[in-house]
Amino acid sequence: MTRVLFVTSEVHPVIKTGGLADVSASLPEALCTMDHDVQIVLPGYPAAMAVANASGARRRAQLNVGGFDVTLWQTQLPGTAVVLWLVECPPLFDRPGNPYQCSEDEDWPDNAQRYCLFAQVVALMALGEADLDWVPDLVHCNDWQSGLVPVILDNTRQRPATVFAIHNLAYQGLFSHRIFQALELPDSLWRFDRLEFHDQLSFLKGGLVFSDQLTTVSPGYAREVCQPELGYGLDGLLRYRQSALTGILNGIDTRHWDPQTDPLLDHHYSARSLGNKRLCRRDLQRRVGLDANGEGPLLGFIGRMVEQKGIDLLLAVLPELMDRGCQCVILGSGMRDYEQAALDLAEHHPGQLSVTLGFNESLAHRITAGADLFIMPSRFEPCGLNQMYSMRYGTVPVVHRVGGLGDTVFDPQTASADQANGFTFRSPDPPALRAAIDRALDAFRKPKTWRKLQRNGMAGDYSWQTRAREYTNVYRQALAARQSADHD
């Protein structure tokens, strides 16, 4: 049995800002079914400590790290048997709202100190120096918030193996040289081949340089980050480490996302019996104020209203689609300009366009089930989960063919009739998106063709079991590399 310490800055249902939280919940549980002892460690945010208090968590260790008093609590991830460790340090983590930002546009000014301390505590746990009765064979780090963990472990004897996962290379944890000095990191790390990145400290680069193995959240994204367009200045390093880099597609929680049993839906259905999907559509129309008599295709969009997600492309084509009798439901939040543009458009198209700002889990499930088409025009998308949710619910996706979207959505123009499950476009601009939607609308008018697309999508394997086996292979490689280094 391999003991794995899974290091993350968010995990569903404790704290969530994006897909990392979903992965951090589902992957450890899947790995535990495959002869791994996976335990999660998370900063002690207020929401996390509330879970600890409600679940009867045990105080397991008291530490002093960098002048801060730290308490390690042990509990379980809600709804699972997976052990969850919480790093409680109130001066750094007892803050309301978003774990990374004090406002919508501003990060917490001491984020470097917060996640440096988190990394130091994780390193103590990893080396058996936190007075615990459990020591990992491997540490699995995720994104920049845990990027210093492999750095701290690098020069220690008999350290565990390390794996570092890139969920989104655009977020690198960049800080000034002054902050580098304030963290009292060794001067030897301020080099271009270590932590220095264009005269800044890069937490993420630490994970890329010092980990035994690297992963990304899809094979497509693994290729893209090695190219200048999406490498964000780190493509040269990633090409250098390409032999240690593996792209593994994310899975989804198929128990939570199942149209046959979803408790957030009033009507359930399956690939063999799609009739109730029409009732889900009517229910969605009623709930968001769309014309229930409208028979034109109903489009759905769920996501951040930012340029990366291509919301501007969707807003550009919606007026013409509304004129052609389509309806659309938008759920999300982001840049104020995009939010206001969407609200203005909805005001001009009452009964056809609904916009809900913020996030609502129940509405997200209802959109996924009730829409006919799910639109994901992301300029880049490391993996994407919503396209997999939508296909599992028989809602046909229209996506920009990048990253994990290209790995999961197969267009009838290039795929066989038994494989095609959605529509893709290559150029991130309104004409290309409009052309892909036009092809989808043409298929929608052909019931037999449409049902085939739906059923192909619903037949896909989106579970974590296959993905967990791929991570097992990566773990074996990391452990072998660590063992080889110990013998040198």
Describe the structure.
It contains 19 helices and 19 strands. It is of the alpha/beta class and 488 residues long. The protein has helices at residues 19-32, 46-54, 90-93, 111-126, 148-154, 177-182, 203-210, 219-224, 228-231, 235-240, 275-288, 311-323, 336-348, 361-370, 386-392, 403-408, 430-444, 447-458, 464-487; strands at 2-7, 36-43, 58-65, 68-76, 83-88, 101-103, 106-107, 138-142, 161-166, 174-175, 201-202, 213-216, 245-247, 298-302, 327-332, 353-357, 373-376, 396-400, 423-425. α15 packs across α18. Helices cover 40% and strands 19% of the residues. It has 2 domains: 2-251 and 465-487, Glycogen Phosphorylase B (Rossmann fold, 3-Layer(aba) Sandwich); 275-461, 3-Layer(aba) Sandwich (Rossmann fold). It starts with a strand and ends with a helix. The protein has a 9-stranded mixed β-sheet, sandwiched between helices. A 6-stranded parallel β-sheet has the order 16-15-14-17-18-19, with helices on both faces. It has a two-stranded antiparallel sheet with strand order 6-7.
List keywords for this structure.
single chain; about 500 residues; alpha/beta; Rossmann fold; 2 domains; six-stranded parallel sheet; 19 helices; about 20% strand; globular
The helix content, as a percent range, equals: 25-40%
Average pLDDT rating: 96
Largest sheet: 9 strands, mixed
Topology-level CATH name of the largest domain: Rossmann fold
What low-confidence regions span 5 or more consecutive residues with pLDDT below 50? none
Radius of gyration: 23 Å
Secondary structure: elements and pairs:
Layout: E1 2-7, H1 19-32, E2 36-43, H2 46-54, E3 58-65, E4 68-76, E5 83-88, H3 90-93, E6 101-103, E7 106-107, H4 111-126, E8 138-142, H5 148-154, E9 161-166, E10 174-175, H6 177-182, E11 201-202, H7 203-210, E12 213-216, H8 219-224, H9 228-231, H10 235-240, E13 245-247, H11 275-288, E14 298-302, H12 311-323, E15 327-332, H13 336-348, E16 353-357, H14 361-370, E17 373-376, H15 386-392, E18 396-400, H16 403-408, E19 423-425, H17 430-444, H18 447-458, H19 464-487
Parallel strand pairs: 1-2, 1-8, 2-5, 8-9, 9-12, 12-13, 14-15, 14-17, 15-16, 17-18, 18-19
Antiparallel strand pairs: 3-4, 4-5, 6-7, 10-11
Helix pairs in contact: 1-19, 4-5, 5-7, 11-14, 12-13, 12-17, 15-18
